[in-house]
Design goal:
Layout lengths: L6 H5 L7 E6 L2 H11 L3 E6 L3 E6 L2 E7 L9 E6 L4 H10 L4 E2 L7 E3 L2 E4 L2 E7 L5 E5 L2
Amino acid sequence: MHHAIPMNAISSLSNADAAVNIAVRDIARASDFYGGLLGLTETGRQGEQLVSYRSGSSLLFVYKSEYAGTNKATAMSWLVGADVDAIAHTLKAKGIGFEHYDMPGMQLEGDVHVGHGMRVAWFKDPDGNILSLVSG
């Protein structure tokens, strides 16, 4: 028998906060990166399997997985407005390298891609997960 899902249950999904999941090989190394270098606030931990962080009103779940680093697309972006260049500069000073991509309609200014009305800087975590800073 088919049970109807109340419409209010579905519409509440659009009002719920969403979390980002990032697969890593080593929780301790990931903690040094996300908590230490990036300065995110740790909100919880499940042994050596998962660490949660708060970033603005978002949650980031960093969890141990054999599939760490296999995503070849951007896994997470921070919407930082006009601070893209300043944050990229600060992260570079902490030893984080930035990715440079050849993209139509975008020019590279230092480590920041500029075009299509936005500024974007891409970098990777220790497992190769692609992260970005976005102006809008």
